[in-house]
Structures
1.
Amino acid sequence: MGLLLVFGGLALLGYPLLFPSQPDDPEPESTHGSVGWVEENPVENQEEDEARDQRELVLEEWQSVRLVIPDIGLDLEPIYGDVFDDDLLQEAPVHFGMSDLPSTRSGNVAFAAHRRGNAAFFRELDRLEEGDFVYLEVADQLLVYRVAWNRIVEPDDWSVIDSTDYPALTLQTCEPKDSSATHRLIVRANFYKLLDGQNIP
């Protein structure tokens, strides 16, 4: 009996040498550190996105703006005044005084410009398609719009610049492009998002 106990003890002592144990799994801390970062980051990003979405821009009076439409190579500073004043239209696109000011809440901000002659700022407006980006830089903010539609309307159809219950941007020029205008070409873009102090892509 004593010999059995001795051999049994030796066997137990030699087991680790004959069958070395596999390395332990990494310490939980080493995995939890990375997993924790992955789990927490989306929450932080979500909060930042929500905060960004809650920001607003509502102008009480006209401020200088920059209108950029990359797809047609347009980068101009529209002016405020009488949209029927041809002297102003020779300088830049003109804001419709009867339309709204830029806003992220609601309202339709509208600009008009020539399509022929030396001041043909909106000559290529017909090239814009649904989904194209339009940028309005104002008050150190960048309002991003996306084209929703373009259409040709009668010259006396002013409903296209009516105020809207969503934030919108309307661009107007003469139609057709290369002859005396009989109608008006309208491009409507809907507000997409507000960027704070970022450069136009």
2.
Amino acid sequence: MIGLDSLLLLLFTATDITHNEWLGWGRIGYQSSFELMPLLVVMTTILYLLFDVILKFVKTNSILSALKIVLFCGIIITLVGFPLLSVINARHTSVNYLLIHDGALQTEIAARFLFKGINPYATNYLGTPLESWQYVEEDHPTAKNPALYHYAYFPFFLITSTVGHAIQNAVLGWEDLRFTLFAQYVAVLFVVWLLVKNMKEKYVFLILFAANPIVVHFLLEGRNDTASFLYLITSAFFLSRRKLTLSALFLAFGITFKQTLIMAIPFFLGYVYFSKGTGREFRKYVTVFLLVSVLIIAPFFLWDPKSFFDSTIQYMNGGTLHGYPITGIGFSRLLHEVGIIPNTHMKFPFWIFQGITVIPLLIFFLKLLKRTPKISYVFLFFGLTTLVFFYFSRVFSDSYITLILLSFITAILFYMKENQEKSEQTA
């Protein structure tokens, strides 16, 4: 029989090859004319399928097993690495405001500002390459990109991007944020490899994380959703190893990396509280988490409190002069399409809908977590609560689906891991 990993790999590679828009190229204006890549992906996927079947009918063979690993790596390099390098090279040989998501372009500029001692949250981006980025609003054709007036990302993303900026300029003499995002993507795969013991299951979960069309799509655009998930899954990895200090450290990294992870706080803290009790371990976990979070955010907040708050909180809620318009795939867009909200720049109290849906869910899920504290439930409840929160927010970006999907996949990963550990204990 063909394994689940082979079926998933065939599905994902076929999707990426037959629908090039899944690669994220179309939305950033890149048209690939290189035909060798899909041919190589097809060849290596077929070989992977053959090795998978052969290994089920022969005794364990270290050479064949090693070749299967090599083929897997070759597929990921060809499916993800090659298109990533292609679009980065195309951008490098043209102009730097093309062929990249505007958030990634803005972060590159913000890193340069930081090196010059300019507050990225308090300045505007007029006169920078971001002004030339092709921003379009269907119902406001003459609208300017609101990102020109606000930097929305949290400080730890800016810090890691600035480190990547320095390394790339020292080594290459130029930069592309996607090199840094790709490094974090690879780090996610490494953590998944460490989490899963069974070799067959390793392949399944690595494919779910590495070759998933949604992950590949937004990585090539330059979105940071997979990169943000690195810190959440690493925190859970250390939590499963009972290394609470390291878990709290990485949870703080995640929360200060991107606002979309904030819903993880009650579930991670709840798990530690319900599984460890109210004693010294829980207090230590909370102390490390809060201390690291404050140390990362405080310098930028104190630099200019109003500008920081406006850029990271008010901007995406439409609460500033140049607020982000209603967009995405959620309830806000639905209200706009049916005419209840006539203007995408109109203010609307979405927090009411979020409150009446998310708060009861949060209470219900925390009660379930108290009854059965499991890391798998942490990710399941986080994914569901965050999905509802996003749906009723002003902006439900399509890239947020990456975080939801990876949360559910990780919930399954930990569920299988917990069942295996339980079986080993009772054996």
